[in-house]
Amino acid sequence: MEHHSKLLLATGVGLVLSDIIPTPADALYFNLQQKWKAELEDGKITPNQYWTKDAAAYYGLNPIWWLGVLGATFLIGKTDKQRMGVFVTLLAGGVVIGVISKNIKKDNLRYNNMESDKI
After folding, report:
1. How open is the CA angle 99-86-75, to the nearest 5 degrees?
2. For residue 76, what are the contacts with CB-CB under 8 A and spacing of at least 6?
3. Rounded to two decimals, what is the model's pTM?
4. Most CB atoms within 10 A, among 1, 45, 71, 116?
5. Is 91 within 8 Å of 70 (Cβ atoms)?
């Protein structure tokens, strides 16, 4: 396989994984989305403002996170081995924070639904 083909394949795999792996950016997005939805329902923002903010956060937060991970990887790590260690550490930390946030959101929905069923 040619060098360019390997690079294209690695980039593609990286893009797929970056969409699958939960990150702190996902947690922030879900929290912002919930806040903006409440503001929309309370009439504090318009539907146009809600969807503009939502789209900007959805398409902007994850790339910012991954740029931060890559930037930190190259700033902190001096050798390839150190860079890989920094990258894996940031990646693992991001996954943990993202999974915890998703679980909290899921539990909040579940328990709120249970409360409304009792009423």
Report:
1. 125
2. 82, 83, 86
3. 0.64
4. 45
5. no
